[in-house]
Amino acid sequence: MTLSQNHPFVDGRTSDSALIQALTGRTPSHHPVWFMRQAGRSLPEYLKLREGVSMLDSCLDPAMASEITLQPVRRHKVDAGIFFSDIVIPLRLAGVGVDIVPGVGPVLDKAIRTAEDVDNLPELTDESLDPIREAVALTVAELGSTPLIGFAGAPFTVAAYMVEGKPSRDHLGPRTMMHAEPEVWDRLMTWAADASGKFLRAQVEAGASAAQLFDSWAGSLSLPDYQKFVAPYSSRALDFVRDTGVPLIHFGTGTGELLTAMRDSGVDTVGVDYRIPLETAIERLGQSVSVQGNIDPALLSAPWEVLEAHVRQVVASGAKARGHVVNLGHGVPPTTDPTVLTRVVELIHSL
């Protein structure tokens, strides 16, 4: 697929932005920065907009999802918007019964645990993704030269929720299934990869200039298990957008031991969480990819001089990489003072 001629990445609006340059190993005019979970719960304007609206409903209201995506870009002057959505949106759009329960997370009406359960999963249709395309189109029309990053959950994280039926600490269910019933696991992961891939593709087609695959739970796996039972499906999800030419980012939490395998899924940039020094990650990854990260979100509530020293250290460490997008080593905590994030952006842009 070639993107349309009026796509922001094709017509020149975003292709030379600081973010895209860093993701692809060129030298930007300043250090680009955005924050995972920059949109949403830390912003008073978000909480006001969301009053009385459920999480998944807000994601599927194109005007609301667009406005929520734009709020942190306006407020913090970050170098990218990240599409406001949730990793279970493809499940909801396909017709799988799922909801976000406040204080718990994604909960399925029925966990997917048997071969029959997997065979009965509905297919995610192209038409069902129209609200996503509409939200992205509204957003990029407002963003101008600021790129939008598309977003999807990696197949393992999506499948882990499906097997457990809800959030889990240790993901015993999916880890058992991959060994005990590898054929069922293969079919489930193929379904999840295709759903996430179609979801990503809809965002890129509609105007996203980069795409991030987000693996929240991959850190629960050993490297051999990840390579055998997970990595091929992450690659499959990314295959849906490779032909677009937009830069691809792969991020996971607790994945210090998996970084090279994540790189080998064929991405431009690997996200690094806060549990591993950025310099160590760069040594492991080499110079074929850029890195993204890895300010510790806990320090956003520390005294400014502590946070400032940490941010400066992260930026200095990133200089050793092919390219560096400054970000957090996970998402913005809901208790974060938004003025601190704005100040961090100003600091990074001043370095």
What keyword list fits this structure?
351 residues; TIM Barrel; globular; alpha/beta; two-stranded antiparallel sheet
Write a structural description.
Strands 1-4-5-6-7-8-9 form a seven-stranded parallel β-sheet. Strands 2-3 form a two-stranded antiparallel sheet. The chain has 351 residues and is of the alpha/beta class. It has a single domain (18-350), classed as TIM Barrel, CATH 3.20.20. Helices cover 46% and strands 12% of the residues. It has 16 helices and nine strands. The protein has helices at 18-23, 44-50, 55-59, 62-76, 89-94, 115-119, 130-143, 155-164, 172-180, 182-206, 223-229, 231-242, 259-263, 278-285, 304-318, 338-350, and strands at residues 81-82, 98-101, 105-108, 148-153, 210-215, 248-252, 269-271, 290-295, 324-328.
CATH topology, what is it called? TIM Barrel
Describe the largest sheet: 7 strands, parallel
In spatial order, strands of the major sheet run 1-4-5-6-7-8-9
Low-confidence stretches: none
Number of helices: 16
The assigned structural class equals: alpha/beta
Percent in helix: 40-55%
Under the CATH scheme, which architecture would be assigned? Alpha-Beta Barrel
CATH class label: Alpha Beta
Mean pLDDT: 97
- Overall shape: it is globular
Rg from alpha-carbon coordinates: 19 Å
- The tally of beta strands, per DSSP, is 9
Following the backbone from N to C, one meets helices and strands in this order, namely HHHHEHEEHHEHHHEHHEHEHEHEH
Please give the domain count: 1
SS strand fraction:
5-15%
Distance between the termini: 39 Å
